[in-house]
């Protein structure tokens, strides 16, 4: 089974701290994604990556950066955490190898981040 | 820009009832449509994926249909159980671009 692991289920940080959220997948997927999920707003795409050292902005990249130095790991960085970044963060991975139409996304369990 | 809408936002049904969740999308040029389940405080689990060339997919008590020309999909759940209580999200995909998600339908099945 595909496994997408997020390093923390719950995090509490203070305003202004630099925060790292880590995501690792074990299926050699080339695509990885970071979303945040807020009540009433649904899932919003922050950043995604199609390969090592590649990154693309999603719908709400402001205040975030990402790093993908290895294929299996995609890190989300909050350079200076703010209270409006309190949210559930979800990582996902996918592949199109074999069949373009079968681009199934697999999600991690999520990290609930509280910024105080 | 693709937009995905799910109606209703919330639904409560008695155990044993058959039910239908709806998903609509504005751009019919999609490659596939996925239905996901999300339990409270957890990540998303893929339930069914329908390719654009398919009309429906079935898994156990779940049946998902796709009418690409009208921009609609339905998720049919037969003989609902309390364990089916969760939020159900649909998402459409086009090639190797990120999925576009609806906001979900929160389902409660009452014993």
Q: How does this structure look, described?
A:
Chain A has 116 residues and is mainly beta. In chain A, strands 2, 4, 5, 6, 9, 10 and 11 form a seven-stranded mixed β-sheet that branches. Chain A has a four-stranded antiparallel β-sheet with strand order 1-3-8-7, with no helix packed on it. In chain A, strand 7 and strand 8 (73-78) form a beta hairpin. Chain A has no helices and eleven strands. Chain B is an all-beta fold. Chain B is built from no helices and eleven strands. Chain B has strands spanning 4-7, 10-14, 19-25, 32-38, 44-51, 56-59, 62-67, 72-77, 86-93, 100-101, 105-110. In chain B, the strands form two sheets. In chain B, strands 2, 4, 5, 9, 10 and 11 form a six-stranded mixed β-sheet that branches. In chain B, strands 1-3-8-7-6 form a five-stranded antiparallel β-sheet, with no helix packed on it. Chain B starts with a strand and ends with a strand. Chain A binds chain B through residues 4, 31, 33, 40-43, 45, 48, 50, 58, 88, 90, 92, 96, 100-110, 112, and chain B through 31-32, 34, 36, 41-46, 49, 51-53, 89, 91, 93, 95-96, 98-99, 101-104.
Helix content of chain A: under 10%
Q: Based on helices, strands and strand pairing, what is the structural class of chain B?
A: mainly beta
Strand content of chain B: over 45%
User: Ranges of chain B with pLDDT <50 over ≥5 residues?
Assistant: none
H/E element order of chain B: EEEEEEEEEEE
Order of helices and strands of chain A: EEEEEEEEEEE
Roughly what is the average pLDDT of chain B, rounded to an integer? 94
Fraction in beta strands of chain A: over 45%
Give the number of helices of chain A: 0
From the alpha carbons, calculate the radius of gyration of chain B and give it in angstroms: 13 Å
- N-C termini distance of chain A: 37 Å
Q: What value does the Rg of chain A take, in angstroms?
A: 14 Å
Basic shape of chain B: globular
End-to-end distance of chain B: 41 Å
Pair with the biggest interface: A-B, 27 and 25 residues
Q: Sheet bearing the most strands of chain A, described? A: 7 strands, mixed
């Amino acid at each position: 089974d595909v496994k997408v692991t997020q390093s923390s289920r719950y995090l509490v940080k203070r305003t202004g701290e630099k925060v790292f959220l880590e995501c690792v997948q074990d299926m050699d997927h080339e695509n990885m994604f970071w979303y945040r999920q807020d009540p009433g707003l649904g899932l919003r795409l922050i950043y995604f990556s199609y390969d090592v050292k590649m990154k693309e902005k999603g719908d709400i990249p402001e205040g975030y950066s990402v790093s993908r130095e290895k294929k299996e790991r995609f890190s989300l960085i909050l350079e200076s955490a703010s209270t409006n970044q309190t949210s559930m963060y979800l990582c996902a991975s996918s592949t199109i190898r074999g069949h373009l139409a079968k681009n199934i996304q697999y999600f991690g369990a999520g990290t609930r981040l509280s910024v105080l | 820009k693709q937009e995905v809408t799910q109606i209703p936002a919330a639904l409560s049904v008695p155990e044993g009832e058959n039910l239908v969740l709806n998903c609509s999308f504005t751009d019919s040029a999609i490659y596939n449509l996925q239905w996901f389940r999300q339990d409270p405080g957890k990540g998303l689990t893929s339930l069914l994926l329908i390719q654009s060339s398919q009309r429906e997919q079935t898994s156990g008590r779940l049946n998902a249909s796709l009418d690409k020309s009208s921009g609609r999909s339905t998720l049919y759940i037969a003989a609902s159980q309390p364990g089916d209580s969760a939020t159900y999200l649909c998402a459409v995909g086009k090639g190797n671009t990120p999925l576009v998600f609806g906001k979900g339908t929160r389902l409660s099945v009452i014993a």
